[in-house]
Amino acid sequence: MSPSETGARDSGYLGVDLGGTRMRLAIFDESGRIKHKNATQTDPEHPECLVEAMRSLLGDTPLRIERAVVGVPGPISYRDGVPLKLPNLPKWEGRLSAREMEGNLGLPVELANDADLAALGEYRFGAGRGVSDMLYVTSSTGVGAGVIVGGRLLRGRWSMAEAGHMVIDWKTGETVEWLGSGSALARLSGVDGPALDKLILAGDARAAAVFASVAEAFAVGVHNLVHCFMPERVVVGGGVSRSGELLLGPLRARLESCTDGCPVGGRDVFIAAAGDDVGLMGAFAYARDLARQREGPR
Fold first, then answer.
1. How is the chain split among helix, strand and coil, in percent rounded to 5?
2. 137 shares a domain with 103
3. Residue 44 φ then ψ, to 5°
4. Cα gap 2→255, rounded to integer Å
5. Which of 17, 124, 215, 267 could tie 250 with a disulfide, CB 3.0–4.6 Å?
6. Taking a C-beta distance cutoff of 8 angstroms, is the pair 37, 61 a contact?
7. What is the pLDDT of residues 29-88, one digit of tens each?
8. How many structural domains compose the chain?
9. Residue 210 sits in which domain range?
10. What is the pLDDT of residues 133-147, one digit of tens each?
């Protein structure tokens, strides 16, 4: 008999990609297909808007939701289910807790670092397929990273690889994020990413120099991470990656010129391929993995 004939409901999972200005939500079935999807504004004053948005989407599905996973833009205490810092949502700090959300929603809830989830999404569904060890690095407003080792997301009590805060200029204390992110491009050029790309294509030498400087800082940061985690493949995502070889060219060159045991070369650098839903897909994969661990081997 089918589940509908027996009265049983099929399993599903809720994934959330929480951003500083916008949150995206999706309900997945057991196979990973998106059954319901929504996006709404993030209220910077009131974290209650997150539970409200989740409850609204849950009301639209006949699936039995096993677990929800929320990708959070900041370092996470996985053990305690709370963010350590929320740079884009400072008024949410101390007011966001997985355990409180469980009580409000009546289902298991996990918080996870958004770059960790994007790494898992790329590994399972995008450019990371086919390897067992992968480094994912994103450059957009900030710089973040997630690490896959032996086919598993690398994490401990806290989220790993807060790459944006890695100091790469010891004299000034400037970080990868300050020098190698989309925010750095905007600060140094005075225009947004697409406008800067157009200036470069039009032959603007100053625009090209700005991008080259930011791309080189990003390359230094990724090169350092490669030596920390020794991956088989590097996957680069985020808004700045849409500029393609303008960003990846300096990284490929730095890895190719490495003479100190670097495990990857330029051919092992890939643009992220899972698309805009990568964080949601990673949240689904993480939620399903946790549910299956709870149930035991299948």
1. 40, 25, 35
2. no
3. -70, -15
4. 54
5. 215
6. no
7. 999 999 999 999 999 999 999 999 999 999 989 999 999 999 999 899 999 999 999 988
8. 2
9. 129-271
10. 999 999 998 899 999
